[in-house]
Specification:
Strand content: 15-25%
CATH class of the largest domain: Alpha Beta
Structural class: alpha/beta
Shape: globular
Number of strands: 20
Bound molecules: guanosine-5'-diphosphate, 6-O-phosphoryl inosine monophosphate, magnesium ion
Number of domains: 2
CATH superfamily of the largest domain: Adenylosuccinate Synthetase, subunit A, domain 3
Distance between the termini: 39 Å
Largest sheet: 10 strands, mixed
Radius of gyration: 23 Å
Length: 458
Protein backbone atom coordinates (compact mmCIF):
# COMPACT_ATOMS: atom_id res chain seq x y z
CA UNK A 1 0.00 0.00 0.00
CA UNK A 2 1.41 3.41 -0.92
CA UNK A 3 1.83 5.94 1.84
CA UNK A 4 -0.49 8.90 2.06
CA UNK A 5 0.13 12.12 3.93
CA UNK A 6 -3.02 14.17 4.08
CA UNK A 7 -4.84 14.60 7.39
CA UNK A 8 -7.98 13.22 5.72
CA UNK A 9 -6.24 9.87 5.30
CA UNK A 10 -5.67 9.62 9.01
CA UNK A 11 -9.29 10.24 9.81
CA UNK A 12 -10.66 6.76 9.70
CA UNK A 13 -8.17 3.96 9.54
CA UNK A 14 -10.71 1.32 10.48
CA UNK A 15 -10.01 -1.22 7.77
CA UNK A 16 -9.90 -4.96 7.23
CA UNK A 17 -6.58 -6.64 7.89
CA UNK A 18 -4.82 -8.16 4.94
CA UNK A 19 -4.91 -11.95 4.78
CA UNK A 20 -8.66 -12.29 4.44
CA UNK A 21 -9.79 -12.02 8.03
CA UNK A 22 -11.69 -8.82 8.87
CA UNK A 23 -10.20 -7.14 11.91
CA UNK A 24 -11.33 -3.95 13.59
CA UNK A 25 -8.60 -1.38 13.93
CA UNK A 26 -8.94 1.57 16.29
CA UNK A 27 -10.15 4.78 14.68
CA UNK A 28 -7.70 7.61 14.73
CA UNK A 29 -9.86 10.68 14.46
CA UNK A 30 -7.74 13.78 14.17
CA UNK A 31 -10.20 15.88 16.12
CA UNK A 32 -10.49 19.65 16.17
CA UNK A 33 -7.79 21.87 14.75
CA UNK A 34 -6.22 24.87 16.38
CA UNK A 35 -5.92 28.17 14.53
CA UNK A 36 -2.60 29.86 15.23
CA UNK A 37 -1.60 33.55 15.14
CA UNK A 38 2.17 34.24 15.01
CA UNK A 39 4.39 37.29 14.70
CA UNK A 40 6.29 37.35 11.39
CA UNK A 41 8.82 40.10 12.22
CA UNK A 42 10.46 41.27 15.49
CA UNK A 43 7.26 41.53 17.52
CA UNK A 44 4.52 44.11 18.04
CA UNK A 45 2.99 43.36 14.65
CA UNK A 46 -0.54 43.62 16.03
CA UNK A 47 -1.05 39.99 17.09
CA UNK A 48 -3.33 41.06 19.96
CA UNK A 49 -5.66 42.79 17.54
CA UNK A 50 -5.82 39.81 15.17
CA UNK A 51 -6.42 37.42 18.08
CA UNK A 52 -9.17 39.67 19.40
CA UNK A 53 -10.84 39.59 16.00
CA UNK A 54 -10.80 35.79 15.86
CA UNK A 55 -11.48 35.34 19.59
CA UNK A 56 -15.01 36.69 19.26
CA UNK A 57 -15.89 33.23 17.89
CA UNK A 58 -13.35 31.09 19.77
CA UNK A 59 -14.14 28.65 22.56
CA UNK A 60 -10.58 28.45 23.88
CA UNK A 61 -7.77 31.01 23.45
CA UNK A 62 -4.28 29.82 24.44
CA UNK A 63 -0.83 31.20 25.07
CA UNK A 64 1.91 28.63 24.37
CA UNK A 65 5.23 30.40 25.05
CA UNK A 66 6.90 33.53 26.36
CA UNK A 67 5.85 35.37 29.47
CA UNK A 68 5.06 38.94 30.39
CA UNK A 69 7.78 40.17 28.04
CA UNK A 70 4.88 40.25 25.54
CA UNK A 71 2.64 43.29 25.29
CA UNK A 72 -0.50 42.87 23.21
CA UNK A 73 -2.86 45.79 22.65
CA UNK A 74 -6.57 45.38 22.01
CA UNK A 75 -8.93 48.28 21.42
CA UNK A 76 -12.64 47.58 21.85
CA UNK A 77 -15.36 50.24 21.96
CA UNK A 78 -12.71 52.93 22.31
CA UNK A 79 -11.22 51.25 25.40
CA UNK A 80 -7.58 50.15 25.16
CA UNK A 81 -6.38 47.02 26.95
CA UNK A 82 -2.81 45.75 27.14
CA UNK A 83 -2.21 42.09 27.84
CA UNK A 84 1.09 40.55 28.86
CA UNK A 85 0.46 37.10 30.30
CA UNK A 86 -3.27 36.84 29.82
CA UNK A 87 -4.33 35.68 26.36
CA UNK A 88 -5.98 38.61 24.52
CA UNK A 89 -9.07 36.41 24.16
CA UNK A 90 -9.79 37.00 27.88
CA UNK A 91 -11.90 39.93 26.67
CA UNK A 92 -14.42 37.49 25.23
CA UNK A 93 -16.60 36.50 28.17
CA UNK A 94 -17.80 33.39 26.32
CA UNK A 95 -14.37 31.82 25.84
CA UNK A 96 -11.88 30.09 28.11
CA UNK A 97 -8.30 31.34 28.19
CA UNK A 98 -5.49 28.86 28.69
CA UNK A 99 -1.90 29.52 29.71
CA UNK A 100 0.01 26.48 28.47
CA UNK A 101 3.03 24.61 29.81
CA UNK A 102 5.41 26.47 27.46
CA UNK A 103 4.69 29.82 29.11
CA UNK A 104 6.78 31.11 32.02
CA UNK A 105 4.60 32.77 34.65
CA UNK A 106 5.51 35.58 37.02
CA UNK A 107 2.70 35.26 39.54
CA UNK A 108 2.75 38.85 40.90
CA UNK A 109 2.70 40.00 37.25
CA UNK A 110 -0.26 37.76 36.42
CA UNK A 111 -2.40 38.95 39.32
CA UNK A 112 -1.44 42.60 38.85
CA UNK A 113 -2.49 42.33 35.23
CA UNK A 114 -5.76 40.65 36.15
CA UNK A 115 -6.57 43.20 38.87
CA UNK A 116 -5.72 46.13 36.58
CA UNK A 117 -8.08 44.81 33.91
CA UNK A 118 -10.74 44.05 36.50
CA UNK A 119 -10.69 47.76 37.44
CA UNK A 120 -11.10 48.59 33.74
CA UNK A 121 -14.28 46.53 33.71
CA UNK A 122 -13.00 43.13 32.62
CA UNK A 123 -14.88 41.20 35.29
CA UNK A 124 -14.57 37.50 36.00
CA UNK A 125 -11.26 37.01 34.16
CA UNK A 126 -10.07 34.60 36.87
CA UNK A 127 -13.10 32.35 36.30
CA UNK A 128 -12.28 32.12 32.59
CA UNK A 129 -8.57 31.44 33.00
CA UNK A 130 -6.96 28.01 33.10
CA UNK A 131 -3.27 27.58 33.90
CA UNK A 132 -1.27 24.49 33.04
CA UNK A 133 0.26 22.72 36.01
CA UNK A 134 3.39 22.13 33.90
CA UNK A 135 4.13 25.84 33.33
CA UNK A 136 7.37 27.11 34.88
CA UNK A 137 7.41 29.94 37.40
CA UNK A 138 9.36 33.18 36.97
CA UNK A 139 10.49 34.30 40.42
CA UNK A 140 11.28 37.88 41.42
CA UNK A 141 14.96 36.95 41.61
CA UNK A 142 14.87 35.75 37.95
CA UNK A 143 13.91 39.33 37.08
CA UNK A 144 16.74 40.74 39.19
CA UNK A 145 19.16 38.29 37.53
CA UNK A 146 17.88 39.41 34.10
CA UNK A 147 19.02 42.94 35.02
CA UNK A 148 22.36 41.72 36.40
CA UNK A 149 23.03 39.74 33.22
CA UNK A 150 22.30 42.82 31.11
CA UNK A 151 24.78 44.86 33.18
CA UNK A 152 27.35 42.09 32.80
CA UNK A 153 26.86 41.94 29.01
CA UNK A 154 27.26 45.68 28.79
CA UNK A 155 30.48 45.54 30.82
CA UNK A 156 31.93 42.55 28.93
CA UNK A 157 30.82 43.14 25.32
CA UNK A 158 30.01 46.84 25.37
CA UNK A 159 26.40 45.97 24.51
CA UNK A 160 23.47 44.21 26.09
CA UNK A 161 20.42 42.50 24.52
CA UNK A 162 17.94 45.12 25.62
CA UNK A 163 15.71 42.54 27.31
CA UNK A 164 12.41 43.49 28.92
CA UNK A 165 13.96 42.53 32.31
CA UNK A 166 10.94 40.35 33.02
CA UNK A 167 13.15 37.41 33.97
CA UNK A 168 12.33 35.44 30.82
CA UNK A 169 15.89 34.30 29.95
CA UNK A 170 16.79 33.26 33.52
CA UNK A 171 13.47 31.40 34.00
CA UNK A 172 13.87 29.41 30.75
CA UNK A 173 17.51 28.77 31.79
CA UNK A 174 16.28 27.26 35.07
CA UNK A 175 13.82 25.15 33.07
CA UNK A 176 16.53 23.90 30.70
CA UNK A 177 18.96 23.20 33.53
CA UNK A 178 16.24 21.20 35.32
CA UNK A 179 16.33 23.23 38.49
CA UNK A 180 13.22 25.27 37.63
CA UNK A 181 10.00 25.04 39.60
CA UNK A 182 6.59 24.56 38.05
CA UNK A 183 3.04 25.38 39.00
CA UNK A 184 2.48 21.74 40.02
CA UNK A 185 5.43 22.01 42.43
CA UNK A 186 4.02 25.16 44.01
CA UNK A 187 0.65 23.48 44.52
CA UNK A 188 2.18 20.25 45.83
CA UNK A 189 4.02 19.71 49.10
CA UNK A 190 5.02 23.25 50.15
CA UNK A 191 7.87 21.99 52.35
CA UNK A 192 9.41 20.26 49.38
CA UNK A 193 8.79 23.32 47.21
CA UNK A 194 10.49 25.54 49.82
CA UNK A 195 13.60 23.34 49.86
CA UNK A 196 13.87 23.39 46.08
CA UNK A 197 13.24 27.15 46.03
CA UNK A 198 16.06 27.69 48.53
CA UNK A 199 18.39 25.50 46.45
CA UNK A 200 17.55 27.48 43.34
CA UNK A 201 18.21 30.79 45.11
CA UNK A 202 21.49 29.40 46.39
CA UNK A 203 22.48 28.32 42.87
CA UNK A 204 21.88 31.84 41.52
CA UNK A 205 23.60 33.48 44.49
CA UNK A 206 26.72 31.45 43.84
CA UNK A 207 26.69 32.77 40.25
CA UNK A 208 25.72 36.34 41.23
CA UNK A 209 27.08 37.17 44.71
CA UNK A 210 25.41 40.60 44.54
CA UNK A 211 21.97 38.91 44.48
CA UNK A 212 20.05 39.30 47.73
CA UNK A 213 16.81 37.40 48.25
CA UNK A 214 14.58 37.52 51.31
CA UNK A 215 13.74 33.83 51.08
CA UNK A 216 11.19 33.71 53.90
CA UNK A 217 9.32 36.74 52.57
CA UNK A 218 9.29 35.26 49.06
CA UNK A 219 7.98 31.92 50.31
CA UNK A 220 5.24 33.64 52.32
CA UNK A 221 4.09 35.53 49.23
CA UNK A 222 4.34 32.45 47.01
CA UNK A 223 2.15 30.51 49.43
CA UNK A 224 -0.52 33.20 49.14
CA UNK A 225 -0.27 33.23 45.33
CA UNK A 226 -0.55 29.44 45.33
CA UNK A 227 -3.99 29.59 46.95
CA UNK A 228 -5.18 32.29 44.57
CA UNK A 229 -3.91 30.29 41.61
CA UNK A 230 -5.13 26.85 42.72
CA UNK A 231 -8.71 27.08 41.34
CA UNK A 232 -7.36 27.91 37.88
CA UNK A 233 -4.85 25.10 37.60
CA UNK A 234 -5.49 21.99 35.47
CA UNK A 235 -3.49 19.30 33.77
CA UNK A 236 -2.97 21.36 30.61
CA UNK A 237 -2.24 18.39 28.36
CA UNK A 238 -5.44 16.58 29.29
CA UNK A 239 -7.47 19.79 29.07
CA UNK A 240 -6.17 20.34 25.54
CA UNK A 241 -6.74 16.70 24.60
CA UNK A 242 -10.38 16.98 25.64
CA UNK A 243 -10.76 20.28 23.80
CA UNK A 244 -9.31 18.71 20.64
CA UNK A 245 -11.30 15.51 20.80
CA UNK A 246 -14.60 16.44 22.39
CA UNK A 247 -17.44 18.30 20.70
CA UNK A 248 -16.41 20.62 17.84
CA UNK A 249 -14.53 23.54 19.39
CA UNK A 250 -12.80 26.59 18.01
CA UNK A 251 -9.32 26.68 19.50
CA UNK A 252 -7.12 29.71 18.96
CA UNK A 253 -3.43 30.02 19.82
CA UNK A 254 -1.92 33.46 20.38
CA UNK A 255 1.79 33.58 19.67
CA UNK A 256 3.91 35.97 21.68
CA UNK A 257 7.12 37.70 20.54
CA UNK A 258 7.90 36.71 16.92
CA UNK A 259 9.83 34.60 14.39
CA UNK A 260 12.92 36.84 14.35
CA UNK A 261 13.04 36.69 18.17
CA UNK A 262 12.79 32.87 18.21
CA UNK A 263 15.58 31.22 20.22
CA UNK A 264 16.39 28.86 17.31
CA UNK A 265 15.51 30.87 14.21
CA UNK A 266 15.79 34.48 15.31
CA UNK A 267 18.67 36.92 15.16
CA UNK A 268 20.60 35.07 17.90
CA UNK A 269 21.77 36.13 20.45
CA UNK A 270 19.45 39.17 20.17
CA UNK A 271 16.36 37.05 20.66
CA UNK A 272 14.03 35.94 23.42
CA UNK A 273 14.37 32.54 25.10
CA UNK A 274 11.43 30.58 23.68
CA UNK A 275 10.26 29.18 20.35
CA UNK A 276 7.93 31.80 18.95
CA UNK A 277 7.44 29.85 15.72
CA UNK A 278 4.91 27.11 15.03
CA UNK A 279 6.83 24.34 16.81
CA UNK A 280 6.31 26.22 20.08
CA UNK A 281 2.56 25.69 19.66
CA UNK A 282 2.99 21.89 19.79
CA UNK A 283 5.50 21.85 22.63
CA UNK A 284 3.90 24.66 24.60
CA UNK A 285 0.42 23.19 24.71
CA UNK A 286 0.79 19.49 23.94
CA UNK A 287 -0.99 19.85 20.58
CA UNK A 288 -0.02 17.19 18.01
CA UNK A 289 1.10 18.61 14.63
CA UNK A 290 -1.95 17.07 12.93
CA UNK A 291 -4.16 19.29 15.06
CA UNK A 292 -2.60 22.49 13.79
CA UNK A 293 -4.99 24.14 11.36
CA UNK A 294 -4.58 27.61 9.86
CA UNK A 295 -1.37 29.41 10.77
CA UNK A 296 -1.78 33.17 10.35
CA UNK A 297 1.32 35.34 10.20
CA UNK A 298 1.00 38.93 11.37
CA UNK A 299 3.24 41.52 9.71
CA UNK A 300 3.26 45.30 9.87
CA UNK A 301 3.27 47.20 6.57
CA UNK A 302 6.73 48.39 7.67
CA UNK A 303 9.21 46.98 10.22
CA UNK A 304 9.94 47.75 13.87
CA UNK A 305 12.25 46.30 16.45
CA UNK A 306 12.66 46.94 20.20
CA UNK A 307 16.06 46.34 21.77
CA UNK A 308 19.42 45.66 20.23
CA UNK A 309 20.40 43.65 17.13
CA UNK A 310 20.77 43.82 13.35
CA UNK A 311 17.94 45.49 11.42
CA UNK A 312 18.87 45.74 7.72
CA UNK A 313 15.96 47.99 6.61
CA UNK A 314 16.16 50.34 9.62
CA UNK A 315 15.79 54.01 8.71
CA UNK A 316 17.82 56.26 10.99
CA UNK A 317 16.40 59.33 9.31
CA UNK A 318 13.20 61.34 8.80
CA UNK A 319 11.34 58.29 7.44
CA UNK A 320 12.17 56.26 10.56
CA UNK A 321 11.08 59.16 12.77
CA UNK A 322 7.82 59.56 10.88
CA UNK A 323 7.00 55.85 11.21
CA UNK A 324 7.86 56.01 14.92
CA UNK A 325 5.66 59.02 15.69
CA UNK A 326 2.74 58.30 13.33
CA UNK A 327 2.75 54.65 14.32
CA UNK A 328 3.06 55.47 18.06
CA UNK A 329 5.88 52.95 18.07
CA UNK A 330 6.55 52.69 21.78
CA UNK A 331 6.95 49.32 23.53
CA UNK A 332 3.81 48.23 25.43
CA UNK A 333 5.86 46.42 28.08
CA UNK A 334 8.85 48.69 28.57
CA UNK A 335 7.81 52.07 27.15
CA UNK A 336 10.94 52.10 24.96
CA UNK A 337 10.81 53.75 21.51
CA UNK A 338 10.72 51.11 18.79
CA UNK A 339 13.30 51.31 16.01
CA UNK A 340 11.59 51.71 12.62
CA UNK A 341 12.32 50.94 8.98
CA UNK A 342 10.89 49.80 5.66
CA UNK A 343 9.05 46.52 5.28
CA UNK A 344 11.62 43.74 4.92
CA UNK A 345 10.16 40.92 2.87
CA UNK A 346 13.31 38.82 3.29
CA UNK A 347 12.45 38.34 6.97
CA UNK A 348 8.74 37.77 6.34
CA UNK A 349 9.58 35.12 3.72
CA UNK A 350 12.01 33.56 6.18
CA UNK A 351 9.24 33.49 8.83
CA UNK A 352 7.02 31.80 6.23
CA UNK A 353 9.69 29.15 5.49
CA UNK A 354 9.58 28.15 9.14
CA UNK A 355 5.89 28.58 9.94
CA UNK A 356 4.17 27.74 6.64
CA UNK A 357 1.61 30.52 6.91
CA UNK A 358 -1.80 29.88 5.41
CA UNK A 359 -2.46 33.61 5.24
CA UNK A 360 -1.09 36.94 6.42
CA UNK A 361 -2.62 39.81 8.37
CA UNK A 362 -0.93 43.02 7.19
CA UNK A 363 -1.36 45.68 9.87
CA UNK A 364 -0.82 49.45 10.13
CA UNK A 365 -1.15 50.22 6.43
CA UNK A 366 -2.70 53.57 7.48
CA UNK A 367 0.63 54.69 8.96
CA UNK A 368 2.07 54.85 5.42
CA UNK A 369 -0.74 57.15 4.16
CA UNK A 370 1.34 60.33 4.12
CA UNK A 371 4.51 59.09 2.44
CA UNK A 372 5.53 60.28 -1.05
CA UNK A 373 7.21 57.00 -1.79
CA UNK A 374 7.41 53.67 -0.01
CA UNK A 375 10.24 51.19 -0.19
CA UNK A 376 10.17 47.45 0.38
CA UNK A 377 13.27 45.31 0.98
CA UNK A 378 13.09 42.36 -1.40
CA UNK A 379 16.53 40.75 -1.27
CA UNK A 380 19.86 40.83 0.55
CA UNK A 381 23.17 41.12 -1.26
CA UNK A 382 26.60 40.15 0.03
CA UNK A 383 29.61 41.39 -1.93
CA UNK A 384 27.25 42.45 -4.71
CA UNK A 385 25.60 39.01 -5.03
CA UNK A 386 22.03 38.14 -3.95
CA UNK A 387 21.89 35.51 -1.22
CA UNK A 388 18.94 33.07 -1.17
CA UNK A 389 18.89 32.43 2.59
CA UNK A 390 18.57 34.51 5.76
CA UNK A 391 22.05 34.71 7.37
CA UNK A 392 22.52 32.98 10.73
CA UNK A 393 25.61 35.00 11.65
CA UNK A 394 24.91 38.47 13.01
CA UNK A 395 28.15 39.92 11.61
CA UNK A 396 27.01 38.82 8.16
CA UNK A 397 23.52 40.24 8.70
CA UNK A 398 25.07 43.58 9.66
CA UNK A 399 26.95 43.60 6.34
CA UNK A 400 24.11 42.76 3.93
CA UNK A 401 23.04 45.35 1.43
CA UNK A 402 19.28 45.53 0.98
CA UNK A 403 17.75 45.59 -2.50
CA UNK A 404 14.58 47.69 -2.52
CA UNK A 405 11.51 48.05 -4.72
CA UNK A 406 10.09 51.57 -4.64
CA UNK A 407 6.38 52.31 -4.79
CA UNK A 408 4.60 55.65 -5.16
CA UNK A 409 2.76 56.66 -1.98
CA UNK A 410 -1.06 56.87 -2.17
CA UNK A 411 -1.19 60.09 -0.09
CA UNK A 412 -4.77 59.35 0.94
CA UNK A 413 -6.29 58.66 4.35
CA UNK A 414 -7.11 54.94 4.44
CA UNK A 415 -8.33 54.84 8.05
CA UNK A 416 -11.99 54.83 7.04
CA UNK A 417 -11.60 52.04 4.47
CA UNK A 418 -13.61 48.95 5.38
CA UNK A 419 -13.35 46.91 2.20
CA UNK A 420 -10.79 46.29 -0.53
CA UNK A 421 -12.49 48.64 -2.98
CA UNK A 422 -12.27 51.52 -0.48
CA UNK A 423 -8.45 51.42 -0.72
CA UNK A 424 -6.65 53.63 -3.25
CA UNK A 425 -5.25 51.75 -6.26
CA UNK A 426 -1.67 52.51 -5.21
CA UNK A 427 -2.29 50.93 -1.79
CA UNK A 428 -3.87 47.91 -3.51
CA UNK A 429 -0.73 47.58 -5.67
CA UNK A 430 1.45 47.69 -2.57
CA UNK A 431 -0.58 44.93 -0.92
CA UNK A 432 -0.65 42.76 -4.06
CA UNK A 433 3.11 43.07 -4.44
CA UNK A 434 3.68 41.91 -0.86
CA UNK A 435 1.30 38.99 -1.27
CA UNK A 436 2.99 37.83 -4.48
CA UNK A 437 6.47 38.26 -3.13
CA UNK A 438 5.82 36.19 0.01
CA UNK A 439 3.67 33.72 -1.90
CA UNK A 440 0.96 33.78 0.78
CA UNK A 441 -2.47 35.41 0.51
CA UNK A 442 -3.17 38.47 2.63
CA UNK A 443 -6.42 37.84 4.46
CA UNK A 444 -6.66 41.05 6.50
CA UNK A 445 -5.37 44.58 6.11
CA UNK A 446 -5.28 46.82 9.20
CA UNK A 447 -6.03 50.53 8.82
CA UNK A 448 -6.51 51.54 12.45
CA UNK A 449 -6.34 50.40 16.05
CA UNK A 450 -9.86 49.23 16.68
CA UNK A 451 -11.64 45.97 15.87
CA UNK A 452 -13.58 47.34 12.92
CA UNK A 453 -10.45 48.77 11.25
CA UNK A 454 -9.57 45.43 9.70
CA UNK A 455 -10.39 44.88 6.04
CA UNK A 456 -11.15 41.22 5.43
CA UNK A 457 -10.10 40.19 1.92
CA UNK A 458 -11.67 36.72 1.74
P1 LIG B 1 1.45 42.72 19.41
O1 LIG B 1 2.50 42.65 20.46
O2 LIG B 1 1.83 42.00 18.17
O3 LIG B 1 0.08 42.32 19.90
O4 LIG B 1 1.35 44.27 19.01
P2 LIG B 1 1.38 45.54 20.01
O5 LIG B 1 0.07 45.66 20.66
O6 LIG B 1 2.59 45.50 20.86
O7 LIG B 1 1.65 46.71 18.98
C1 LIG B 1 0.80 46.97 17.91
C2 LIG B 1 0.28 48.40 18.03
O8 LIG B 1 -0.30 48.79 16.81
C3 LIG B 1 -0.83 48.57 19.06
O9 LIG B 1 -0.74 49.84 19.62
C4 LIG B 1 -2.10 48.42 18.24
O10 LIG B 1 -3.22 49.08 18.82
C5 LIG B 1 -1.68 49.08 16.98
N1 LIG B 1 -2.33 48.58 15.75
C6 LIG B 1 -2.59 47.29 15.40
N2 LIG B 1 -3.07 47.24 14.15
C7 LIG B 1 -3.11 48.52 13.70
C8 LIG B 1 -3.49 49.11 12.45
O11 LIG B 1 -3.86 48.44 11.50
N3 LIG B 1 -3.37 50.47 12.36
C9 LIG B 1 -2.93 51.24 13.39
N4 LIG B 1 -2.84 52.55 13.22
N5 LIG B 1 -2.57 50.71 14.57
C10 LIG B 1 -2.66 49.37 14.71
P1 LIG C 1 5.17 40.94 21.64
O1 LIG C 1 4.48 39.64 21.99
C1 LIG C 1 8.88 43.14 20.83
C2 LIG C 1 12.54 41.54 22.61
C3 LIG C 1 13.13 42.47 23.67
C4 LIG C 1 14.61 42.14 23.54
C5 LIG C 1 14.59 40.63 23.25
C6 LIG C 1 14.82 39.76 24.49
O2 LIG C 1 4.57 42.13 22.25
O3 LIG C 1 5.38 41.05 20.16
P2 LIG C 1 13.36 39.19 26.64
O4 LIG C 1 12.82 40.08 27.70
O5 LIG C 1 12.32 38.38 25.93
O6 LIG C 1 14.49 38.33 27.11
O7 LIG C 1 14.01 40.20 25.57
O8 LIG C 1 13.30 40.36 22.72
N1 LIG C 1 11.13 41.20 22.82
C7 LIG C 1 10.11 41.78 22.18
N2 LIG C 1 10.09 42.80 21.30
N3 LIG C 1 7.72 42.52 21.16
C8 LIG C 1 7.73 41.49 22.03
O9 LIG C 1 6.62 40.77 22.33
C9 LIG C 1 8.95 41.10 22.60
N4 LIG C 1 9.30 40.14 23.48
C10 LIG C 1 10.64 40.21 23.60
O10 LIG C 1 12.86 43.82 23.36
O11 LIG C 1 15.15 42.77 22.42
MG1 LIG D 1 3.71 43.87 21.65
Amino acid sequence: MSHTWSAKDHKNTSQPATGGQAQKRPRNDVGNKATVVLGAQWGDEGKGKVVDLLATEADVVCRCQGGNNAGHTVVVDGKEYDFHLLPSGIINTKSISLIGNGVVIHLPGLFEEGDKNDKKGLKGWDKRLIVSDRAHIVFDFHQVVDGLQETERQAQDGKNIGTTKKGIGPAYSSKASRTGLRVCDLLGDFKDFSTRFKNLVHQYQSMYPALTVDVEDQLKKLKEYAERLRPMVRDGVYYMYEALHGAPKKILVEGANAALLDIDFGTYPFVTSSNCTVGGVCTGLGIPPLNIGDVYGVAKAYTTRVGIGAFPTEQLNAVGELLQTRGHEVGVTTGRKRRCGWLDLVIVRYAHMINGFTAIALTKLDILDVLDEIKVGVAYKLNGKRIPHFPANMDVLHKVEVEYETFPGWKTDTSAARKWNDLPAKAQNYIRFIENHIGVPIKWVGVGKSRECMIQMF
